[in-house]
Automatic annotation (TrEMBL), chains A, B, C, D:
This is Formyltetrahydrofolate deformylase. Catalyzes the hydrolysis of 10-formyltetrahydrofolate (formyl-FH4) to formate and tetrahydrofolate (FH4). One of its GO terms (molecular function) is formyltetrahydrofolate deformylase activity. It comes from Flagellimonas maritima. Belongs to the PurU family.
Length: 282, 282, 282, 282
């Protein structure tokens, strides 16, 4: 049995020693430990993986941890049993590159998830859902039907017990209600190196500004548009010789890779969010 | 004799053919030609280098070009005799890394310039000027003396017949008068990947935002702060494990390399500015 | 009508002027021109694109060019009519990431080709061919049947009139006969930054050597294994914390992007091969 | 008082817990802990930093650690008191860029070292030593005088009690005796992305091969030329348009940055060497 434990709390002396001692007493062998202290903010972070030869009671472990360590240090914490398969909902609009990338990784066994459905405000990508035999729900979104569309989305998410959502170039702004229902569990890909060029048409804005580097950013969605905690970023060079169309084509390759990396980091429980930033244990 | 010719004008049919024909007739051998068309803006750009076995009259060449090609197509153009050494003024404040980098390149023969002086609003870096035996002028800048400081700066620039200015982490905003006197001839290094984090303390802002990539941008100075045409950019990865101090240290390496690249591009006449952007022939 | 013309020959004075004059006389407007001189080798290279308002006779153009320019300067040259769709044969073995990437780009209209078939020495990836409704030919290759397998491959290539071949992680060494039949028309992806780690198991070798950077290289296939002209390379950082499995996963993302870029450069006629190297007009 | 402890040994259960418990008992607060297990090789690595409010006896700490932890787990280990300034000897030949870079960082307080001398087989860079007021020793090396040159070098290193050596583009092969005297304490910069292009003239070889990426590698020197444990690597893109001279100029910028990074990692005790590889705690 293998557990991943994520912790953050006010930085104090003795936390590492206490936690590793606790794990050791429970018969666990620590196979990975990484910690970090944000000295500006005075916050301690730790991720550890521990193997247990004899299967222990997970609920018992959690209870004891909660009443001991966690209480003592005022920890935010999470314990995950490895090899559980979360349910990942995918939202798309018309662009197919991120969807194709996610599904081909899924089909290759690279992503340990279930994909109960693909949801879109358009019909365009249904053929890909069909190719990969995944249910496709078309929920159009207009100015008028925003509320009912949101209700349908939430119904779908609940019915399929979706654990987290990937916006694979979904071109609609999510409702606050939906965002609240999935805190730090909605991963978006934005087609610029944020905070530059937030909002609509970032490639056009980048072309206009004459930058020599373009990028893509994957972040957790919050109520502020394109301002959530950044999980992953990457960039590529451009020059005057590239048109907006070239920017878009080069950007596509960034977007799909950056989004997939973020999904994999989230899946392997390597992210902690605090102060609208992330700690990424990689 | 070798000439570099830079041209831009409205895009029309036949420009390349006309210009190359003209050069050929003058006995020139074209050893480099690169052209670009910004189709959005409908502008044609060309850079060519031509060798002439027999030395021709440069003023004659220019006159004929002006009255022929240039008039016909309404060109903005420039002809440069290779191996002339422009005079480069350096402005610094307290940080030494960009200055050291420029001067060590200069001392190695990597930069074909004269450096008549280093100007600073502080005394701190005089020791480096001394190390490299270059005159150092200390012109303090305060709220009160801005105008007189500017006058002194302009006097110095005129006296030494400075051709272009490099702001090697000069932490003062230049006066509009000075900027006007050196259009597209003042190269600044800003310590972020513009347009993200323009203005003061970009590393602090980047840390606060939790970005995974930081950068540096070299640009021509215009009246709008940090908004001039970008010449060169580069980036490096950071993570949660880096403090602001780490950002600054990593950034220093970017800044000096990016600034030097921009200076070399400017020196080798490989930049054309239009619409607040650059064409870089590299 | 739009033509792309690729030229290389011994470097002499007047080539650019002659060619642009010729195009102009034929009524062509040069919309792109890039040239390069390898001064070490004394070779001149040029790529130009020209638009003709009135459709001209392509064969007439070629004949005149051959007897004029080309003879005079001893040119290797090629003229391509834009928007022709070449036939691209894909060879795969068991890894699916490059195949998925190519086919999803193909399906999105990003690659202007026909894909008459996918050929493999294994059955494993037939399901992907089915997903994208492309014929899949299974031609097993063993020590014993090498010759007959090769014959089958060549038959297939001829029957479908394949123009160029992409080895999308095809794990067999091609026969010299096949390589000879497609000179500079077989594009391979090798999973290392060549010339480091040529041959089998490059990720294992990279791990063993303890490198901090891994890469992928796309090159034209020649008789020498992994030693053909390099079209495109890219790299990514690794650390001691990455296992061989991690190298392979990170490498997959490089491989598919690098291969696709090479295919697109080849398709858009932006490559010239000489001295076992490439000139890439980008 | 702050200690950095580096450990590696066969991987066993309970090491982290034991060590952190030990530190805690001694009154230490662990402010940094990173560990790594090479599962292929079955080796455990750990780096930790611990602050002690009351100054403890370093020799006492070491003795107790040696007889306890270290014996029990068969550890290779090292304890370093922070803020000690090691003595760094610099070897150069004719290229000045790495030397300038190291010395300007040294002068800025970026490198916490003493630099007792610069040693060279040429007179060329004496002027830089003079600029920075550091003793310069000229020890010519020829086929005939190799042995006596080596003796002089070793004398110098002993006299000044040099802790580690930086080869800042020193173009001579060190004698085995010197290498043996400084195991894992000689840092070299090689001007290629090793293992590609080991040995002489790597930029020429890279140009010849037509690579699209060049690099630089910093490694600990071992008896095998350019085959020691890699500390740091970086790369930059090149194209057909770059001459060998361009490769060299672009490479210079890589070399100096990569070497400085390696020196800083070594200085901050963030490197462990095993199996001719490095673990870099960054």
């Amino acid at each position: 049995m293998k557990l991943a434990i994520l912790i953050h709390c006010s930085d104090k002396s003795g936390i590492i020693s206490s936690v590793t001692h606790f794990i050791h007493q429970k018969g666990g062998n620590i196979v990975y430990l990484d910690q970090h202290v944000d000295k500006e903010a005075g916050i301690f972070f730790m991720r550890l993986e521990s193997e247990f030869e004899n299967n222990i009671s997970l609920s018992g472990f959690k209870e004891e941890f909660a009443n001991g360590m966690a209480k003592k240090y005022g920890m935010h914490w999470d314990v995950h049993l490895e090899d559980t398969k979360p349910k990942m909902g995918i939202f798309v609009s018309k662009y197919n590159h991120c969807l194709y990338d996610l599904l081909s990784r899924f089909n290759s066994g690279e992503l340990l998830v279930d994909i109960p459905f693909i949801l879109s405000n358009h019909q365009n990508l249904k053929y890909i859902a069909d190719q990969f035999q995944i249910p496709y729900y078309h929920i159009p979104v207009t100015k008028e039907n925003k509320e009912s569309a949101e209700t349908k989305q939430l119904d779908l998410l609940r019915r399929y017990e979706v654990d987290f959502i990937v916006l694979a170039r979904y071109m609609q702004i999510l409702s606050p209600k939906l965002i609240d229902a999935y805190p730090q569990k909605i991963i978006n890909i934005h087609h610029s190196f944020l905070p530059a060029f937030a909002g609509a048409k970032p490639y056009h804005a980048a072309f206009e500004r004459g930058v020599k580097i373009i990028g893509a950013t994957s972040h957790y969605v919050t109520a502020d548009l394109d301002a959530g905690p950044i999980v992953e970023q990457d960039v590529t060079t451009v020059s005057h010789s590239h048109s907006i169309k070239d920017f878009i084509a080069k950007g596509r390759d960034l977007e799909k890779i950056v989004l997939s990396r973020a999904v994999k980091l989230h899946l392997s429980r390597k992210t902690i969010v605090y102060n609208n930033k992330t700690v990424i244990f990689s």
